[in-house]
């Protein structure tokens, strides 16, 4: 009997978790390795006192049948709800975006708080090396944001051919600062709790998590634009947070701020995307996927929740096809 193939997935964001779920269904022994203390990646939510604030993805939209099918099930299970928009609905997770990924990941083996530092060849398979763990797999799927994935590959004694370097080395992401403000007042921001027009230069979105019905207390998430975040990236957290607060007060008029926090995303959105839903390294059983790997039919041209989901599903199908073809050849 053919031995069950072992697949290691680096990164427990949407792409990693969707790929994992699919590969488990196909009968593979899958493990997700995640450096943070929970799965979700940029589907990120923070508890602040009695409140809850999303500080990564704000909402998601649906263009593909595959995600539409998931959405129907999530709506039925009460995991998500429509926030606003009739022709092109914006969906949100009921208890914060992170909770949705945690629900989908239930039952998938995940090693948390484990940052993979190197990947080494252990032909015909591969090993992941974190500071205290070495794990051996038949194949690896790497779903970190592309610049982080490329750094990891460069730090690893693997053979990357010129085309791998050329493709991966050119992709850059922009950073995003998000200021989180617990406020005294019960404030209404627009009809649904989202302000994304007529904002001061540098501000991208202001979200009221209470109006979004994610938070029991008034908590604002203030998303700064990529260019602004780039220019403030090295100015220090205190100065950056103070400037976001100044812009917020100017925008909304005086509000009483009870507490403030800053989230700095080094890799928030890709500036350049791939027009292929995954990549496989030429010389190793190692695939790359994630939100920057777009299906050629994706008309948005941007990294987003849906591009991560579709990339995860496509790469899982490709890995499965690869192993089935190997068995047929033998
Ligand atoms: C501020 C912000 C706002 C956004 N707003 C929206 C929005 O409104 N709508 C929308 O559709 N999209 C939005 N997005 C984009 C969306 O969140 C992402 O496209 C999607 O969540 C990416 O999923 P992913 O699996 O590709 O990557 P990630 O979620 O980044 O997952 C990668 C995972 O890999 C882990 N990792 C990295 N390196 C290692 C390592 N060496 N070892 C172990 N683990 C590792 C990371 O910790 C992370 O959990 C937003 C993103 C940000 C940052």
What does this molecule look like?
With 330 residues, the chain is an alpha+beta fold. The protein has helices spanning 14-25, 65-77, 97-105, 146-154, 162-169, 226-232, 237-252, 305-329; strands at 6-10, 29-33, 45-48, 51-54, 80-84, 90-93, 110-111, 118-122, 125-129, 134-137, 139-142, 173-183, 194-195, 203-208, 219-224, 257-270, 279-280, 286-288. The protein has 2 domains: 6-50 and 95-172 and 271-329, FAD/NAD(P)-binding domain (3-Layer(bba) Sandwich); 174-270, Alpha-Beta Complex (Polyamine Oxidase, Chain A, domain 2), CATH 3.90.660.10. The chain contains 8 helices and 18 strands. It has a 6-stranded mixed sheet with strand order 7-2-1-11-18-17, covered by helices on one side. Strands 13-14-15-12-16 form a 5-stranded antiparallel sheet. The chain is globular and about 70 Å long. It starts with 5 loop residues before the first strand and ends with a helix. The mean pLDDT is 96. Flavin-adenine dinucleotide binds at residues 10-16, 33-36, 41-43, 56-60, 115-116, 143-145, 148, 152, 176, 178, 223, 265, 268, 290-291, 303-305, 308. Flavin-adenine dinucleotide is lined by residues 10-16, 33-36, 41-43, 56-60, 115-116, 143-145, 148, 152, 176, 178, 223, 265, 268, 290-291, 303-305, 308. Pfam families: Amino_oxidase (PF01593), NAD_binding_8 (PF13450). InterPro entries: Amino_oxidase, FAD/NAD-bd_sf. Residues 92-319 form the Amine oxidase domain. This is Deoxyribodipyrimidine photolyase.
Strand and helix layout:
Layout: E1 6-10, H1 14-25, E2 29-33, E3 45-48, E4 51-54, H2 65-77, E5 80-84, E6 90-93, H3 97-105, E7 110-111, E8 118-122, E9 125-129, E10 134-137, E11 139-142, H4 146-154, H5 162-169, E12 173-183, E13 194-195, E14 203-208, E15 219-224, H6 226-232, H7 237-252, E16 257-270, E17 279-280, E18 286-288, H8 305-329
Parallel strand pairs: 1-2, 1-11, 2-7, 11-18
Antiparallel strand pairs: 3-4, 5-6, 8-9, 9-10, 12-15, 12-16, 13-14, 14-15, 17-18
Helix pairs in contact: 1-8
The protein binds flavin-adenine dinucleotide.
């Amino acid at each position: 009997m053919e031995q069950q193939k072992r697949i290691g997935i680096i990164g427990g964001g949407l792409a990693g978790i969707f790929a994992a779920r699919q590969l488990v269904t196909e009968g593979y022994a899958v493990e997700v390795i995640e450096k943070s203390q929970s799965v979700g990646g940029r589907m990120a939510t923070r508890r602040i006192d009695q409140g809850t604030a999303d500080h990564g993805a704000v909402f998601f939209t649906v263009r593909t049948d595959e995600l539409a099918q998931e959405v129907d099930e999530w709506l039925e299970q009460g995991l998500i709800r429509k926030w606003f928009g009739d022709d092109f609905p914006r969906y949100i997770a009921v208890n914060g975006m992170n909770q949705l990924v945690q629900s989908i990941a239930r039952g998938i083996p995940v090693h948390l708080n484990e940052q993979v530092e190197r990947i080494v060849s252990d032909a015909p398979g591969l090993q992941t090396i974190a500071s205290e763990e070495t794990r051996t797999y038949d194949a690896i799927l790497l779903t970190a944001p592309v610049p982080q994935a490329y750094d990891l590959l460069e730090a690893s004694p693997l053979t990357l051919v010129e085309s791998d370097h050329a493709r991966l080395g050119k992709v850059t992401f922009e950073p995003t600062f998000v200021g989180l403000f617990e406020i005294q007042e019960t404030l209404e921001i627009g009809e649904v709790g989202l302000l994304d027009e007529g904002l001061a230069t540098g501000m991208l979105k202001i979200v009221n998590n209470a109006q979004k019905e994610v938070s029991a207390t008034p908590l604002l998430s203030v998303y700064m634009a990529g260019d602004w975040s780039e220019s403030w990236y090295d100015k220090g957290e205190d100065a950056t947070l103070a400037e976001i607060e100044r812009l917020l007060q100017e925008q909304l008029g005086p509000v009483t701020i009870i507490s403030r926090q800053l989230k700095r995303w080094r890799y928030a959105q890709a500036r350049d995307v791939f027009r292929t839903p995954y990549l496989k390294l030429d010389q190793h059983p190692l695939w790359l996927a994630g939100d920057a790997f777009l299906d050629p039919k994706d008309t948005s041209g941007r990294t987003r929740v849906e591009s991560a989901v579709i990339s995860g599903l496509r790469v899982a199908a490709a890995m499965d096809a690869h192993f089935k073809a190997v068995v047929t050849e033998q």
